[in-house]
Amino acid sequence: MAIDPPASVRTVADDRAMLRILHDEIAALSGILATAKAEIAALPGERISGSHLPVTADDLDAVAAHTARATETILDTCETLDRVGNEIEPVLAAQLQTATTRIYEACGFQDIASQRIRKVVATLQAVDHRVAQLMATFAVDTGGRGRGPAAAPAGEGRLLPSFD
Predict the structure, then answer these.
(1) Quick check: 140 pLDDT over 60?
(2) Is residue 41 within 8 Å of 147, Cβ to Cβ?
(3) What are the CB-based long-range contacts (under 8 Å, 24+) for 127-136?
(4) How many of the other CB atoms lie within 10 Å of CB of 53?
(5) Which candidate, 150, 144, 113, places its Cα nearest to that of 43?
(6) Which among 69, 81, 128, 151 has most CB atoms closer than 10 A?
(7) How far apart are CA 15 and CA 7, in angstroms?
(8) How far apart are CA 22 and CA 16, in angstroms?
(9) pLDDT at position 163, please?
(10) pLDDT in tens, 4-49
(11) pTM (two decimals)
């Protein structure tokens, strides 16, 4: 009478089957990484991390700064108009005060716009940083032109054993 081994005992065939499954999974991941490398290498590096994102972020910072300066000039001018309003007849002063109040209220856009621009700049900087990390990880030349996937170091042509 033959005795069946306990269910917890693995056979060599079981180990080979598990190794084949593991090999296939690693080979699939390797293919995915090779595709990602090729796609990143094909990205026009000069448009992504070379100049466009940093320049765009700088441009947006400049827009926020110019908007802040323009708003400051407008508010200073409104203060001058308020002082002038104190020296003219009451009916005209009231009209002038109404107009300057509307200008003050309208200038509130600048603070909101600057906050949103800062968020966009932070996002662009994060994207630029992440793209640079990916390009470095996949050994892509960030000097302007992708050079493609990095060549495998000598002796590493085939990293996975064949089970065929």
Answers:
(1) no
(2) yes
(3) 127/53, 128/48, 128/49, 128/53, 128/54, 128/57, 131/43, 131/48, 131/49, 131/53, 132/49, 134/40, 135/40, 135/43, 135/45, 135/49
(4) 20
(5) 144
(6) 128
(7) 14
(8) 10
(9) 47
(10) 666 666 788 888 888 888 888 887 887 777 777 677 666 655 555 5
(11) 0.47
Amino acid identity, position 16? R
DSSP string, 81-124: HHHHHTTS-HHHHHHHHHHHHHHHHHTHHHHHHHHHHHHHHHHH
Query: Would you say residue 159 lies in a domain?
Result: no
| pLDDT at residue 80 is higher than 90 | yes
Domain that holds residue 130: 45-137
C-beta of residue 23 within 8 angstroms of C-beta of residue 161: yes
Classify residue 115: in a domain, yes or no: yes
Residues 68, 59: Cα–Cα separation, whole Å: 14
Q: Which whole-number Å values give the CA distances from 71 to 19, 22, 58, 67, 119, in the listed order?
A: 68, 63, 20, 6, 20
Let me know if residue 4 belongs to a domain.
Answer: no
Tell me the average pLDDT across 133-158: 52
For residue 83, give Cα distances in angstroms to 77, 80, 105, 109, 115: 10, 5, 18, 24, 31
Name residue, tokens 């026009």. Answer: 44
The reply to whether 67 falls in a domain is: yes
